[in-house]
Task: structure prediction
Amino acid sequence: MDTKNIILQIENLQTQFQVGRKTVYAVNDVSLEVRRGHTLGIVGESGCGKSVTAHSILQLLPSNGRIAGGHVRFAPQPGGQVLELEKMSRTGREIRAVRGQQISMVFQDPMSSLNPVYTIGSQIMENLRLHEKISRADGKERIIELLRQLGIPEPEQRYDEYPHQFSGGMKQRVMIAIAMICNPSLLIADEPTTALDVTIQAQILRLMRRLRSEHGTSIILITHNMGIVAEACDEVAVMYMGRVVESGTVQQIFSAPRHPYTRALLRSVPRLDMPAGTELASIPGNTPDASMRFDHCEFEPRCACACDACRRGFPEMYACEPGHLVRCFVREGESCV
Result:
């Protein structure tokens, strides 16, 4: 692991859940790298394993979930110690020292993530004092300054208010404040703009870009919105059925997508230059049950490019150009059947 340039390396990660007698294979052989000061976007349909991958990084899995294989290596400082997160106990002191301090997470739903009976200030203070020895007076001053930087008006007054007094966009900013108060090296944002109108979405994305530029924070942005990825990310990983099927820079993925699933996702995005009345393209069929075990490419039943090889086994990742990886049997220049 190149700790000077790579802050997080996920290698062959497998995460499973036991639901009664059924095993759910949520993450299958996922390998990713997050570069220092960069934003990696993870995209795909609901249920493809995006959020489970993020929860696996911090060992935030429920009791019926487990990491069945692979490695999650984290290097908070360039050239420094590499922490093997998958080996840490999910309730142990080591992983608790990482959560919230070195790696923070903005969860999917700010409406339900904030405790309605505690003030905003007390909820941010809890994370700060959990990881740092600081007086309440100094902590309050630091929190108010962070709220001001995040664009929350009248932060001195807002500090003592409750979640129900905040709009959806303001609650999301509070979630980011909780995540950023200890200046983590890596921020994981799980669908941070869900249920927000486009104006507030733009504000949240600008805020995340500012955090990256001013603090050097590395970011993992999980979303199903390809437009957000194009605007906010440096690199992209496309997931389907718990696997990464394509990864590369934003330019590579949007200008020259190679995997049929990536192409289908991009075709389903509405465009301003589309003629009126144009029907959006859709991906035929449904995402299979994650408890199903395939002996061949999982996308084959829905793929217009499927060939005999797709029905016989799993494709391996190959580099179609430097930094651009694709998991597909159909190579560039070959025709779809």
